[in-house]
Amino acid sequence: MPVLDDLARPGTDDDAVGGVPARLVAAPGSTEEAAALIAAAQDLTVVIRGAGTKIDWGVPPQALDLIIDTRRLSGVVEHAAGDLITIVRAGTPLAEIALGDQVLALDGPAGSTVGGTVAVNTSGPRRLHYGTVRDLLIGITVVRPDGKVAKSGGKVVKNVAGYDLGKLFTGSYGTLGLITECAFRLHPRPRSLAYVRAKAPAEEAARVREARVAPAAIEIDSASGELAVLVEGTPEGVRERSALLAKLLGGDVADDPPAWWGVDPWPSDGIGMKLSVPLSAVPELAAGGDPVRGSAGTGVLYAAADGITQVERLRAQCVRLGGHAVVLTAPSPVRDILDMWGPVPGLALMRRVKDQFDPGHRFAPGRFVGGI
User: Fold this and answer.
1) What is the pLDDT of residues 145-181, one digit of tens each?
2) Which PROSITE patterns did the record assign (predicted)?
3) I want to staple 216 with a disulfide (CB 3.0 to 4.6 A). Which of 26, 129, 229, 341 is the partner?
């Protein structure tokens, strides 16, 4: 297999996923090279890795022959400023996407890549105003497990042909193939921004929404009892709206967010959970005794759990409130005996999609919900 011989190197102690070591690591530099690599690796089990910021999310792979490292698949392919569109390679760190007076409104941990963000469907504080990954992604190029290249979507927002392929790969945890390029909808870069910070209960988020100040984000941290609101726009508009919010909440206007803003509340070796509930249930969840952090404007929050008992308690509370909870990451001794995903509607359909895209179950085997 000449392509494997040219691109692959032996795995090291640093090349492991969920404690499972990889035998080989390869870093293709283009979609074509990635397609040739995957076509030549038909007998190998594969896991995709970007910057590795979320490599331990999900379940460890059942087997791992080859890590495909995407960091050579980097850079902006095209920026159609007039159409508010950009095409970016999957290994590009979000922080390195410079588009002048336009912005790709995706938040992620330091170093997060485009492909990794799409693969695990992470959206930060600004999802309230700009939407999630699924909302911003309008086109995608992937390499299927059989080595064939597939594309869907287009370079203009109105072209939605094949958009379902992007939706399928968003949040698929690398189980359907390799993402190599993404086309995104852009937004004008705000000329000014401010953060309104206040010691206030989560109930106050409803007052922020009712105040018609068009917040870009409403975040809470129940451990500190703080609520913070991001306001963006023209300098004059930001001054007026942030002053109104500061008066409404009894808080202060700041140029910078609180230290906890957009930061996962669990340690690197801890149990991290994503909690999703209706907006009306956010105050009850925040007052439930388990510290939570995240978006009081969308009902997506995060929590650190100290063990299985707390995981089960938080999951039961979310279900009672009309939502759900998943465990994103956990140390090996806990992960091996924990139901990471909880009840998942549509699992049978998800299995059929996996079988169609990856009949050999070679890509991220067992990493996703239901052992997919």
Assistant:
1) 999 999 998 654 444 444 479 999 999 999 999 999 9
2) FAD_PCMH
3) 129
